Amino acid sequence: MPLPVTAIARVGVLTRDCRAAAAQYARFFGINNWRVADCAGRTADGNEYAHRQAVGYANGVGFELIEPQSGLWADELARCGEGPSHVVIPAPDWAALTQAQAATGLGTVAEHEEHGGRRRLLDSRTALGGLGLVFADADALIPHGEPLHLPGDAILPVQKLYQVSVMVRDLDAAKARFRALLGVEVWVDIGIDSAQMPGCEYYGKPVEHTARLAIGRRGGACFELVEPLSGPTVYRDALDRRGECVHHIMVSLAPPQDFQRAAAELAPRGIVVGQSASIPGLMAFAYFDGGQSLAGLFVEVIQPLADNWLELMFPSPEIARIVVGD
């Protein structure tokens, strides 16, 4: 009995300063309205924790920027540094979640009341490649706290949360765990090989590398698992720096000219393209390195090179739906 995962309401990112990070997210994603609140609770083993969080949305894509003050989030920040940490999943039925936890063996790390609602952090990181799972009911998902309005326009349109990507050391083992724990049954396997992809670059320089990845979906939640194999990649960098971890999200499909404009605008702000490649006649892909500006979050952008690129790459409508959703 897997966990009741139906959608991802927010992506959680650990940062040393949630207000400063929110200002940068406003300038990248166009999120102008935030709510900043202080939260506290006690872990299942009795240790207190506290943090400040800024919550904002862009076209339904939610972010919660966590600034740890003490306890479990502070420990993770000290151990792994800034970066994406967890996803928040709607929890309409707490009894069903508790039953699924018993079936999967995933315990509860912490639980607290928030805005009249309830949040529960599961002990999922070891099993799910560093991915933290927070379940929250409808009341807890309502942003609360001090309003914070920040200027900024989206660099590229935020369309939807296409995927959350996790770096793993063993792709097959990770797929099996995501299948057992989250109910992701079908995976789309894709290989990355610079010998077959012209123009592969790593921070602006030609590179030879290989990796393999798999994309799977349950409901509205799409996960990508990436195992680096050889050569320099942003994937390997993440594993070396943070261990298995959440690494990037994808929220935009953009024409090449729009991507180039965005890259030129972002470079002077310190947000550079960390890795890029293309499949001739079909699509190109690239990762913006958020670095300090986006508190360690990388953002993938796919650039279609043909109107029917998706059909050409994935002739099966069901496989295409797994990759990009409905």
Automatic annotation (TrEMBL):
Pfam hit, one: Glyoxalase_4
Domain of life here?
Answer: Bacteria
Give the matching SUPFAM superfamilies.
Answer: Glyoxalase/Bleomycin resistance protein/Dihydroxybiphenyl dioxygenase
Write down what this protein is called.
VOC domain-containing protein
User: What organism does this protein naturally occur in?
Assistant: Immundisolibacter cernigliae
Q: What is the lineage of its organism?
A: Bacteria, Pseudomonadati, Pseudomonadota, Gammaproteobacteria, Immundisolibacterales
